[in-house]
Amino acid sequence: CVSFMLQYSLDTWIAFGIALVVGLVIYFTYGYHHSTLTEEK
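RESULT FIELD:
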């Protein structure tokens, strides 16, 4: 696995990092807004 990861260029890692951050922001934002703990009773 590590040998395959080391073969990727820096551009690929940057694109992966950006996609990962965007995905995590969307995931946690959706979870925060749809959480039952934040709803007022």
